[in-house]
Amino acid sequence: MVTSIHHQRYIVLRQHLKSLRQAAELSQTELADRIGEDQSYVSKIERGERYVDLLFYMDWCRACGIEPDMGMKSLLEAGG
User: Among 62, 65, 75, 77, fewest CB within 10 Å belongs to which?
Assistant: First the structure.
C-alpha cells in the first residue's frame, strides 16, 4: 500500500498528471480554472506536495479532455 507521496508509484502518478495537462496544451492556470481550483493547488500536486484522490483524478482527466478510464489505462502502462 502506498502511504507516502514520495513512493515511486506516486511519483509516476504525478508525472502522468502533468503529461496529461501538457498533452492537452493547458497551463496550470487553465487546468485549475477548469477544475475549480487555484493554480497553486495544481502546482502543489505536480510537485508532490498534495495527494490526489480518485474523484480529483477523474476531474483532472476530464479537464484535459480524456475519459478517466483511458487515463487510468495509460497510468497503469506507465507503471503506476
Answer: 77
pLDDT in tens, 3-14: 677 778 889 999
Q: For the CA atoms of the chain, what is the radius of gyration?
A: 12
Compute φ and ψ for 43, nearest 5 degrees: -60, -45
For the record, the C-alpha cell of 14 comes out as 504525478
Cα separation of 12 and 76, whole Å? 9
**Which residues contact residue 4 at a Cβ distance below 8 angstroms, ignoring those fewer than 6 apart?**
10
56: containing domain: 19-77
Q: What is the pLDDT of residues 47-65, one digit of tens each?
A: 999 989 999 999 999 999 9
Helix (H, G, I), strand (E, B) or coil at 39: helix
Note whether residue 55 is domain-resident. Answer: yes
CATH of the domain at 73: 1.10.260.40
